[in-house]
Amino acid sequence: MARFTSALLLASATQVLSLCSHNTFLHPRAEGENGTVAVKNFGYTGSIGPLFWATLDPGRVNERCASGNRQSPIDMVPEVFTLRPASDLDIVVPDFPEGTEFENLGTTIEIIAKPGGTLKVDGKTFELQQAHFHLPSEHLDAGVSRAMEMHAVWQSAEQEIAVIGTYIDVVVDGAAAAPAVTAPSARFRRRQAAAPVNGSTSATTLLETVFSKVGDITQPGTKTETPPLVLSELVDLWKAGSFQAYSGSLTTPPCSEGVNWFVSTQTLRIQASTFEKVRNVIGFNSRMTQNAPGQLNLQMAALATVMADLSQAAVNGVTVGK
Q1: Which run of H or of E encompasses 184?
Q2: Phi, psi at residue 111, to the nearest 5°?
Q3: DSSP assignment letter at 49
Q4: Rg (Cα) of the chain, in Å, rounded?
Q5: Is 215 exposed, middle or buried (0-12, 13-18, 19+ CB in 10 A)?
Q6: Shortest CA distance to 267 belongs to which of 242, 249, 245, 247?
Q7: Nearest to 223 by CA among 32, 13, 9, 21
Q8: How far is the C-alpha of 198 from the C-alpha of 136, rounded, in Å?
Q9: What average pLDDT does the chain have?
């Protein structure tokens, strides 16, 4: 049994390692029937969860999820990113006086960008496409998971992608949530909310406005319109801090690499009641933390360990799986 399992795993590993790399790209927005939003075919648990993303598309579009060595999200510790001042990024996003479309994709909730939002960095220009939300945060803040994370996704004319990630904390009674009681590991503690550069610890009006409509899209495939949105609040917050930059991947299939990540040192905030409403719609949609950029893909590393153990078991004559 051990020899059979080992051979099967070896065949799987060979297939994954032989797959070629794809260019970074975003799946185009798809409309469902009768004007509804097309629901994604992946998820975050069970047989459609992250461990199986590479197998969900017969065309091998998602292969990098299991073989790429610059996957996201990661633990944002100093050795994996370059700290860049906000002045390195020229960010322009107009307000949306008429609101915009707010969708439930089944895997996240997403606001669609209006034309005019641009990000200029390192001689390249990216246009804002959308912003979506993860619960809890996908990136770890030096080993600590935050309540949520917003990803503002930008794309250049050459199909290159940039993402600005921004942590979201929960405000309780008008103040940032206090740290939890000391736990055995920092990974399971709520980080003490540092005072932002602009001094605000109140709920972010932009997010409260967007999420005021989350009750309209409780079902996957539904969409609504937001009230008018003042995006200058978000841009001002970004410009008041700095960015932790690294080259990674999309955190959802197809897990394309070459994504320019900029994780803001600033924090967005929402009321506890708002967080509960959003949580009831999103549920859980956070990919597991990946290895540091350049290291072996997390799934390949696990597979190699299992194969080594099975091979040793076979040498020792141990029956596995009996």
Answers
A1: none
A2: -105, 135
A3: S
A4: 21
A5: exposed
A6: 242
A7: 32
A8: 25
A9: 84
**Both structure tokens of 133:** 């939300």
Using CA atoms of 294, 190, 205, 94 in order, give the dihedral in degrees to the nearest 10.
-10
Cα 250 from Cα 105, distance rounded (Å)? 16
Rounded to whole angstroms, the Cα distance separating 292 from 75 reads 8
Q: Say which range, 20-29, 231-240, 277-286, 309-318, has the weakest mean pLDDT.
A: 20-29
Helix (H) or strand (E) holding 208: helix 205-211
- In this model, does residue 319 exceed pLDDT 70? no
Please give the average per-residue pLDDT across 228-249, as a whole number: 98
Q: How far apart are CA 47 and CA 59, in angstroms?
A: 18
Pairing label, strands 109-112, 242-249: unpaired
Query: Can you read off the two tokens belonging to residue 185?
Result: 């590991």
**Is the pLDDT score of 181 beyond 70?**
no
> Mind listing the pLDDT tens digit for each residue in 30-79?
555 556 799 999 999 999 999 999 999 888 899 999 999 999 999 999 99
Q: Is the pLDDT of residue 6 over 50?
A: no
Amino acid at 71: Q
Amino acid in position 256: S
Q: Is 89 left (phi over 0), alpha (psi -120 to 50) or beta?
A: beta
167, 146 contact by CB (below 8 A):
yes
Q: Is the pLDDT of residue 20 over 70?
A: no
Q: Which residue in 277, 303, 298, 283 sits closest to 208, CA to CA?
A: 277
CA atoms within 13 A on the CB side of 168: 29
Asked if pLDDT for residue 196 goes beyond 80, the answer is no
Residue in this structure with the two tokens 């991947």, named with its chain if needed: 249
176 - beta bridge partners? 171
